[in-house]
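Hey,
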Amino acid sequence: MNPFENMNVEFKEIYLPEIKKDVVAFANTAGGELSVGIRKDGEIVGVADPDDVMLRLSSLLRDSIRPDVMPFVRIRAVERAEKIVIEITVSAGTSRPYYLQDKGLKPSGVYIRRGSASIPLSDEGIREMIMDNGGRSYEDCRSMEQQLTFQTLENELSARSIEFGASQMRTLRLVGDDGLYTNLAELLSDQCRHTIKTAIFQGKDKALFRDRREFSGSLLRQLREVYQLIDMNNKVKATFSGLERTDMRDYPEESLREALLNSIVHRDYSFSGSTLINIYDDRIEFVSLGGLVPGLSVEAIYMGVSQSRNPNLAALFYRMRLIESYGTGIGNILRLYRGEEKAPIFETAKGVFRVTLPNRNEGACETRLAESPPAASDEAPLTVKAGDEKKLLMLYAERHGGITRKEAEILLNARTTKAYMFLRQLCSDGRLRPDGQGKKSRYIPVE
């Protein structure tokens, strides 16, 4: 550890709110390290309650600095001379200038490092910094974390017969011109700090949780695991016309895939929050941070216009055949809902973009059993609740004077064993009786 303060090193004996100025200065310059529990002369005094100090620091920096500086800050407790010191490591930010929220973009709110001091930046300096940093991309900047592994990425590329080595890492922009890992590399690494949070609610609002989970690791791992979760919750409703069965899932599978990929590829990872997926009885919402790219409107994306916030990530996903050409995702979702009663909704607000997919089967809580053929009877179709297999079999048997095992298989869309099990249960209940032997036997309703 350097025993003296300099452009990249700052010591604080105790926690003080003024620390936020030094963090702003480091983020606006070349990064640095601030240690709490060390005097100006380098003597280590430590902190009495490191957990409390780290919590207060995290809250202070998150609430008082804009834009969000937390993706470029790491706070940890380390042992120095048998005492605990809090180290705040700050990387140069990609959204400079950073400033104190209560002061705004003016000299009293924007700081830079000069020597061992954090000093205000002039109005002219602020304007120049805005111009200099306007074209930088988060995914191209150096990652704060350089101890990265890529097991998930290697497995996914290998499964698609895509080579992955040192030259490919440079081509894919996982390694920058300085030979160090980029933020894109961190997003695809097993150590990715960004997560996806899912919540399943009872009903149509947030009053009652059924389940909630947080997915971490490589974005590719999150993509696979989150899709498995939402696919499990994409239920099937069946419609019958005689022995003809039609299945329809709550959501078109491709629409879920497109919405999930959109929330991953186009979100702004310079924000430290999580991507959110909320599943209700009547809809599923995909909420990604960052909103639309500046200059792009909701009307434009309806027309198929696309401007990727993370072009290198999108290029890799395209190479892996996870996405098609740019700008087709929204159009595909709309196409999949064409002719449905409710259409998908695309909304944007400051820093947020939300895609809402309506449940196509909402309100269709019953499975219909129609006469076969329909013209043979004037009776109204009979209905049963989805999942009530035995009632479905009884209704059919009563309507047709009996039911065979093969007819039960077709009605339930099940194998012989399952259909036979329900028929035997109905016989045990005294509601059906077998007539004949073998596969051709019929099951007759008991009077």
